[in-house]
Amino acid sequence: MRIVLISTPIGYLGSGKGGGVELTLNSLVSGLLSLGHSVEVIAPKNSKLYRSNEKAKLHFVEGEDQVSWQHQNYNSPVSIPNNSLLAGMLEKGLDIAKKADVLLNLSYDWLPIWMTLNVDIPIAHLISMGSESSIISNLISKVYKKYPYNFAFHSKTQANDYPFIKKPIIIGNGFELENYIFQESMRGPMGWVGRVAPEKGLEDAVYVANALGEKLNVWGVIEDEKYASKIEQSYPPGTIDWMGFLATDELQKELGKCRVLLNTPKWNEAYGNVIVEALACGVPVIAYKRGGPGEIIQHGKTGYLADPDNKETMLSYVEIIGKIKRQTCREWVERNASAEIFANKVVSWLNKVINEYK
Ligand code: UDP
Known about the structure:
CATH topology of the largest domain: Rossmann fold
Bound molecules: uridine-5'-diphosphate
Oligomer: single chain
Low-confidence stretches: none
Distance between the termini: 15 Å
Structural class: alpha/beta
């Protein structure tokens, strides 16, 4: 199959601004290449793919980023900046896809979904968020009526945000296992990984660390400076150890030393890449049962699930985290979330999309 991928219109690949989509795209490219497919990627200037993805052709587009939907009001109108990166990527993608089998869009935005109704090229959409915008959800509903297979989701709970989709296509996510090294360190620090932004709930993890008299290691892009400093000021100095944003190779080395990862989503988390990355290193995860984490973590086996926003329960699980066998965490990823397993699911989904156009 010849597949053209459109990246996120927020940040170049490797910047961390695009969140989990950056890793998802790389895992997908790697899985598709290993299955023998041809892959081209349309991405913002300065983007880098993982070394293992050299065989994929990368096309650069310059332009202005979109504003992330989760940081706008649910009923905000669509805004497209002058010299729009998204429009540029879409134009280039459509042009290259004339000679391809399918255009696979990874951006959560209005324009590529709307375009589905206006061209004969199959455009498949991997939806990376729950419903964060009324205008996008309404459009998905409209396109779905004509092309019922063109949307796939990472988790069932995420797809529940789009109730008009009767039998959602759920494809999970995939991770290149060779990039994550298993570590046996049961006495390490507590960790938290993610974009530092309100929907990620860092404050609850800091609360738990402080209540236990420990510090919390935090990795990720600080997307919202005000939010970050407000949390920092609410706790004794040094409670948060800001570790910055690291590339996967470095991140996994540090993350693997932790005895537990805390995951505290305040929104319907579509999947939660960082959970699987921790598990792949042998690190159990305690998360709120909200969105994807509730489907990834096996309570009592690979970590624990606390009721959403219940910090006290989360704290009580940290105290018994030693009961979780780290090897079981790694094994879960090997059996359920490798890049190949993921790519196979994507290919069978894309075949359904392509068949609609025949
Ligand atoms: N991440 C990273 N380096 C860091 C912190 C985070 O590469 O120092 C990546 C991580 O690998 C993951 C992404 O950031 O792929 C966060 O994705 P997730 O699905 O957890 O949340 P999202 O940002 O998409 O809401």
